[in-house]
Amino acid sequence: MIRLTNLADYAVVVMTAAAKARDPRLSAGSVAAATGLPAPTVAKLMGSLAKAGLLASSRGVAGGFRLARDAREITLVDVVEAIDGPIALTACAHEVPSDCAIIGACAVKPHLGIVSRTVREALRSVTLAQLAGAPAVQFEEA
Protein backbone atom coordinates (compact mmCIF):
# COMPACT_ATOMS: atom_id res chain seq x y z
CA MET A 1 0.00 0.00 0.00
CA ILE A 2 1.26 3.46 -0.90
CA ARG A 3 0.30 5.99 1.74
CA LEU A 4 0.69 9.72 2.16
CA THR A 5 2.00 11.02 5.45
CA ASN A 6 -0.71 12.27 7.80
CA LEU A 7 0.43 15.86 7.24
CA ALA A 8 0.17 15.53 3.45
CA ASP A 9 -3.26 13.95 3.84
CA TYR A 10 -4.34 16.80 6.13
CA ALA A 11 -2.89 19.36 3.69
CA VAL A 12 -5.19 17.98 0.98
CA VAL A 13 -8.12 18.39 3.39
CA VAL A 14 -7.05 21.97 4.21
CA MET A 15 -6.59 22.94 0.57
CA THR A 16 -9.91 21.36 -0.41
CA ALA A 17 -11.62 23.35 2.35
CA ALA A 18 -9.93 26.51 1.03
CA ALA A 19 -11.19 25.73 -2.47
CA LYS A 20 -14.74 25.24 -1.15
CA ALA A 21 -14.81 28.32 1.06
CA ARG A 22 -17.33 31.04 0.24
CA ASP A 23 -15.10 33.69 1.81
CA PRO A 24 -11.65 33.43 0.24
CA ARG A 25 -10.06 34.89 3.42
CA LEU A 26 -9.44 31.99 5.75
CA SER A 27 -7.97 31.68 9.20
CA ALA A 28 -6.42 28.56 10.67
CA GLY A 29 -9.22 28.56 13.24
CA SER A 30 -12.01 28.67 10.65
CA VAL A 31 -10.39 25.90 8.60
CA ALA A 32 -9.85 23.81 11.74
CA ALA A 33 -13.52 24.24 12.67
CA ALA A 34 -14.67 23.34 9.16
CA THR A 35 -12.45 20.26 8.84
CA GLY A 36 -12.23 18.92 12.39
CA LEU A 37 -8.44 19.06 12.31
CA PRO A 38 -6.55 20.47 15.31
CA ALA A 39 -5.96 24.23 14.98
CA PRO A 40 -2.18 24.01 15.64
CA THR A 41 -1.84 21.42 12.86
CA VAL A 42 -3.87 23.57 10.47
CA ALA A 43 -1.79 26.65 11.33
CA LYS A 44 1.44 24.74 10.68
CA LEU A 45 0.11 23.37 7.38
CA MET A 46 -1.18 26.73 6.19
CA GLY A 47 2.24 28.24 6.87
CA SER A 48 3.95 25.46 4.90
CA LEU A 49 1.44 25.73 2.06
CA ALA A 50 1.96 29.50 1.94
CA LYS A 51 5.74 29.03 1.89
CA ALA A 52 5.26 26.66 -1.06
CA GLY A 53 3.21 29.27 -2.92
CA LEU A 54 -0.11 27.45 -2.75
CA LEU A 55 -1.71 29.82 -0.24
CA ALA A 56 -1.21 33.55 -0.03
CA SER A 57 -1.40 35.38 3.26
CA SER A 58 -2.14 38.93 4.24
CA ARG A 59 -2.01 40.66 7.61
CA GLY A 60 -4.44 42.96 9.31
CA VAL A 61 -8.12 43.05 10.16
CA ALA A 62 -9.16 41.82 6.73
CA GLY A 63 -6.19 39.47 6.49
CA GLY A 64 -5.94 35.73 6.39
CA PHE A 65 -5.06 33.04 3.91
CA ARG A 66 -6.47 32.42 0.45
CA LEU A 67 -5.62 30.21 -2.50
CA ALA A 68 -2.65 31.69 -4.32
CA ARG A 69 -3.91 30.37 -7.66
CA ASP A 70 -7.19 29.23 -9.10
CA ALA A 71 -8.29 25.84 -7.73
CA ARG A 72 -8.20 24.47 -11.30
CA GLU A 73 -4.46 25.17 -11.40
CA ILE A 74 -3.50 23.51 -8.10
CA THR A 75 -3.06 19.75 -8.26
CA LEU A 76 -2.64 17.02 -5.69
CA VAL A 77 1.01 16.68 -6.62
CA ASP A 78 1.50 20.37 -5.74
CA VAL A 79 -0.04 19.86 -2.30
CA VAL A 80 1.67 16.56 -1.49
CA GLU A 81 5.11 17.73 -2.59
CA ALA A 82 4.71 20.98 -0.64
CA ILE A 83 4.48 18.91 2.53
CA ASP A 84 6.34 15.65 1.85
CA GLY A 85 8.84 16.71 -0.80
CA PRO A 86 9.37 14.83 -4.07
CA ILE A 87 7.22 11.75 -4.54
CA ALA A 88 9.05 8.45 -4.44
CA LEU A 89 7.70 5.00 -3.69
CA THR A 90 10.83 3.88 -1.91
CA ALA A 91 13.65 5.61 -0.07
CA CYS A 92 16.17 4.50 -2.71
CA ALA A 93 14.30 6.20 -5.55
CA HIS A 94 16.15 9.42 -4.72
CA GLU A 95 19.85 10.08 -4.57
CA VAL A 96 19.62 10.23 -0.76
CA PRO A 97 21.49 7.39 0.95
CA SER A 98 19.24 4.48 1.87
CA ASP A 99 19.47 1.87 4.60
CA CYS A 100 18.17 -0.88 2.31
CA ALA A 101 19.97 -4.19 2.80
CA ILE A 102 20.02 -5.06 -0.93
CA ILE A 103 20.70 -1.67 -2.47
CA GLY A 104 23.89 -2.81 -4.20
CA ALA A 105 22.27 -5.85 -5.84
CA CYS A 106 18.71 -4.66 -6.42
CA ALA A 107 17.42 -5.33 -9.93
CA VAL A 108 14.33 -3.18 -9.41
CA LYS A 109 15.94 0.10 -8.32
CA PRO A 110 16.83 1.23 -11.87
CA HIS A 111 13.14 0.98 -12.80
CA LEU A 112 11.59 2.73 -9.80
CA GLY A 113 11.86 6.13 -11.45
CA ILE A 114 9.15 5.29 -13.96
CA VAL A 115 6.87 4.07 -11.18
CA SER A 116 7.38 7.26 -9.17
CA ARG A 117 6.81 9.40 -12.30
CA THR A 118 3.58 7.51 -13.05
CA VAL A 119 2.27 8.08 -9.51
CA ARG A 120 3.30 11.74 -9.72
CA GLU A 121 1.47 12.18 -13.03
CA ALA A 122 -1.65 10.53 -11.61
CA LEU A 123 -1.63 13.01 -8.71
CA ARG A 124 -0.99 15.85 -11.17
CA SER A 125 -4.20 14.92 -13.02
CA VAL A 126 -6.42 15.72 -10.00
CA THR A 127 -7.11 19.38 -9.23
CA LEU A 128 -8.45 21.06 -6.11
CA ALA A 129 -11.45 22.18 -8.12
CA GLN A 130 -12.28 18.53 -8.82
CA LEU A 131 -11.87 17.60 -5.16
CA ALA A 132 -13.98 20.52 -4.03
CA GLY A 133 -16.70 19.55 -6.50
CA ALA A 134 -17.58 23.19 -7.02
CA PRO A 135 -16.81 25.76 -9.65
CA ALA A 136 -13.38 27.26 -9.13
CA VAL A 137 -13.19 30.88 -8.02
CA GLN A 138 -10.64 33.25 -9.50
CA PHE A 139 -8.89 35.22 -6.74
CA GLU A 140 -7.60 38.72 -7.26
CA GLU A 141 -4.04 39.63 -6.38
CA ALA A 142 -3.71 41.16 -2.92
Automatic annotation (TrEMBL):
Gene3D superfamilies, alphabetically? Winged helix-like DNA-binding domain superfamily/Winged helix DNA-binding domain
InterPro entries named in the record? SUF_FeS_clus_asmbl_reg, TR_Rrf2-type_CS, Tscrpt_reg_Rrf2, WH-like_DNA-bd_sf, WH_DNA-bd_sf
Q: Which SUPFAM superfamilies match?
A: Winged helix' DNA-binding domain (SSF46785)
Q: Which domain of life is it from?
A: Bacteria
Which Pfam families does the entry mention?
A: Rrf2
- NCBIfam families reported in the protein's UniProt record: rrf2_super (TIGR00738), suf_reg_Xantho (TIGR02944)
Q: What is this protein called?
A: SUF system Fe-S cluster assembly regulator
